[in-house]
Amino acid sequence: MLIDYKKVNVVQDDSVILKDVNLQVDEGDFVYLIGKVGSGKSSLLKTMYCELDHSDPEKAEVLGCDLNNIKRKEVPSLRRQMGIIFQDFQLLHDRTVKRNLDFVLKATGWKKRKERMERIESVLESVGMADKMDKMPHELSGGEQQHIAIARALLNSPKIIIADEPTGNLDIETARHIVSLLHGIRKDGTAVVMSTHNIKMLDEFPGKVYRCKDGELTDVTHEYQQMDLSEDSKD
Questions:
Q1: Range list of H helices, 4-112
Q2: Do 24 and 5 meet the contact criterion of CB atoms below 8 Å apart?
Q3: What is the pLDDT of residues 13-32, one digit of tens each?
Q4: pLDDT digits (tens, 9 = 90+) for 174-215
């Protein structure tokens, strides 16, 4: 089990955002978190990489780490086993795509330049962006920047990809390509946990579906397999 949450309370500014969260994610799973703005989707994701606290869990494990007892100095090691993708890309705008990715590899312990360059070429090829290596972020479209962000997330062959509204700023066709790319990543056993408002994607790229609503997380996978997706398209 890559993520095992049992009765986890997600806390922000001393307020409980989500109560008694039960969530299990295994290898190769594709998990959607849906719900309105402010319902707790991003907060839940942040607990997984220790950016936000939780309280009083029966169990809170991520990649075998007990989040109840993890030390601050152990957090970077946990995060290195993950790929994290944000809605706003978070690329460094003062350097090229290649240097953006090289910065991450250096920071995560890759010593040999030749190996770093080979890895950069490999991940860019996998997301169809090999020809953008020497471009600056401002020279790329939003969709291209998100492809680069996915490549960055793949650098260290993560066991889990955490994607917070990765299609939020993109047109529908680009969004579809991004979700398709993330969906395909599962073939190597990597799990993907993605928050989204793009409800129509749930039909085209099926996975487990959890809804954040009224301070609770509910598994609604069967509901989304059986109903017209239009009902929640406004979430």
A1: 41-48, 75-79, 97-107
A2: yes
A3: 889 999 999 999 999 999 99
A4: 999 999 999 999 988 999 999 999 888 898 999 999 999 999
Query: Is there a contact between 91 and 101 (Cβ–Cβ < 8 Å)?
Result: no
- Domain span holding position 132: 95-157
What DSSP designation does 199 have? T
Residue 41: give its domain's CATH number: 3.40.50.300
Q: Which H or E element spans position 210?
A: strand 208-213
Contact 200, 32 (CB under 8 A): no
| Helix, strand, coil percent content, the chain, rounded in steps of 5 | 40, 25, 35
34: number of Cβ within 10 Å: 22
Cβ contacts of 119 within 8 Å, gap of 6 or more = 105, 110, 155
Residue 31 lies in a domain: yes
Is 227 a member of any domain? yes
Q: How far apart (Å, rounded) are the C-alpha atoms in residues 165 and 194?
A: 7
> Over the Cα atoms of the chain, what is R_g?
18
**Residue 98, class by beta-carbon neighbours within 10 Å (0-12 exposed, 13-18 middle, 19+ buried)?**
middle
Beta-strand pair 59-62/208-213: unpaired
Which pLDDT does position 164 carry in this prediction? 95
* Closest CA relative to residue 198, chosen from 227, 231, 233, 161: 233
Secondary structure E strands in 130-206: 160-164, 191-195
